[in-house]
Amino acid sequence: LDWDGNTVWYYRDSALHHDFLRLPNGNTLVLLWERIPADLTAMVRGGSVADDDPQRMFGDLVREVAPDGSTVYEWRSWEHLSVDDDVICPLEGRKEWTHANSLAATRDGDLLLSFRQSSVVAIADKATGEFQWKWGRGELSHQHDATYLENGHVMIFDNGSHRRGPSYSRVVEVDPTSDEIAWEYKGDPQVSFYSHNISSAERLPNGNTLMCEGQSGRIFEVTRSGDIV
């Protein structure tokens, strides 16, 4: 939309979900659902089994579309995921494998995705499709909004739903080259900052971080030292 509310471009597909990204070349990356093969569905581990589980669960597909709406690139997550490592949380359903809830790009143009069902954030090489980095097992719990920072780090809203022990959220900045957490924010006390789902965080030009505690509708800004300003 332009500033007067006029539609200047659109792309429609009934399988679109969650996120999209306008690229420097003018193309747009979008997230879509697509059914994965039945034999692969049977191999996917984890999740809470139900009578209405589909024979072919949904997988996440990244598509790049040109301004004229034509498809110029596609990446299918299930062709690169591991049935041994990418396990669905036992408290989640089996209608979809990974439930990607955010899509971004690195400075090299590779794909940065957040997979909620398996509590993993990953970078996939756009050229080969293979994962360069996967992180989150034992650290994250149903996170959202993985963003790529100018320093090469990845910032994540770690919701904390289904976390062992007290429920709390945090925002973490992790270095993909070392898997080290370079910065994190938690509430004080921890339970004072918690959003079961949705939510996001954005690094501001002044170095502070703007957070949206989505479930309660609270937006607040914190300094590097964690002070709310």
Describe the structure.
With 229 residues, the protein is mostly beta strands. It has one helix spanning 38-43; strands at residues 16-22, 28-35, 58-65, 71-76, 100-105, 111-115, 120-124, 131-135, 144-148, 154-158, 170-175, 180-186, 200-203, 209-213, 218-222. A 4-stranded antiparallel beta sheet has the order 1-2-3-4, with no helix packed on it. Strands 5-6-7-8 form a 4-stranded antiparallel beta sheet, with no helix packed on it. It has a 4-stranded antiparallel beta sheet with strand order 9-10-11-12, with no helix packed on it. A hairpin with a 4-residue loop joins strand 14 and strand 15. It is globular. The two termini are 32 Å apart.
From the structure above, extract its key features.
229 residues, four-stranded antiparallel sheet
What is this structure, in a nutshell?
This protein has 229 residues and is mostly beta strands. It has one helix at 38-43, and strands at residues 16-22, 28-35, 58-65, 71-76, 100-105, 111-115, 120-124, 131-135, 144-148, 154-158, 170-175, 180-186, 200-203, 209-213, 218-222.
